[in-house]
Design goal:
The protein is an alpha+beta fold. The chain contains 4 helices and 12 strands, in the order E-E-H-E-E-H-E-E-E-E-E-E-H-E-E-H. 33% of the residues are buried.
């Protein structure tokens, strides 16, 4: 784990792909992010002034920026910002195909935790309102680099909306991708997070560079494009 920022109120991490935020499945002894952080920074249930409070989550397979609160006051402040959609989350994703648009907003209603695979599905009748703003950052031969800004925070939202638009994320077999290009997980990276610092009241932005697996695919796609 790479710490991007640490103060008395918040902790910002660059989460590696493959590490769940909370216990994953039936293996309660497997490592997970919160347990590792509590060992270092304390558990709020002990009654101490500082600890680790969960504000939001990233999927196990997703890398990038994630924020944790270190005090109850910071936790309340950040929770309110997330609930009011005042936090700007920017994801970068490698997807199949070349969209006909440069920018597009997906508004497919989503229903989560469907079936034994706990998938998220588009459900026009019972799904919850959801919106993701997409922008094409780069086009390659048969693939593209997308910026995705979710307006809502449904589970797997970016992955499902991209797939519904006909451009599933690279290596995301759960939502229809048939290409991997050497990736062992869906090509989704939480690039940056912007919010109001709970203590200073100032707008702050934290960013995370691409991890090596993501960056390697981009290098290879760029090389193929230039041939």
């Amino acid at each position: 784990m790479k710490i991007l920022h640490l103060d008395e109120h918040i902790l910002i991490l660059d989460k590696p792909a493959g590490l769940p935020v909370l216990p994953d499945g039936w293996d309660k002894d497997a490592p997970y992010l919160v347990k590792m952080l509590e060992a270092e920074y304390g558990n709020p249930s002990t009654g101490s002034g500082q600890g680790i409070w969960i504000v939001h989550r990233l999927d196990k397979v997703t890398s990038g920026v994630i924020v944790f609160a270190r005090t109850a006051e910071a936790h309340r402040s950040l929770n309110i910002q997330f609930e009011k959609h005042e936090v700007k989350k920017i994801y970068h994703a490698l997807a199949e195909g070349s969209p006909r648009w440069d920018e597009h907003t997906a508004r497919h209603p989503l229903r989560v935790n469907v079936g034994h695979k706990h998938r998220t599905v588009v459900d026009n009748r019972d799904g919850k309102p959801s919106a993701t703003h997409f922008r094409v950052l780069e086009r390659y031969d048969g693939f593209c680099l997308l910026e995705a800004i979710p307006e809502t925070g449904r589970t797997h939202q970016v992955r499902v909306h991209a797939a519904e638009l006909g451009h599933p994320l690279l290596a995301d077999s759960v939502y229809g991708s048939r290409a991997e290009r050497g990736l062992a997980r869906p090509a989704l990276h939480a690039r940056s997070l912007t919010f109001t610092h709970p203590a200073s009241g100032e707008s702050v932005t934290f960013s995370a560079d691409y991890p090596e697996d993501f960056a390697s695919v981009i290098r290879n796609l760029t090389r193929d494009k230039q041939r």
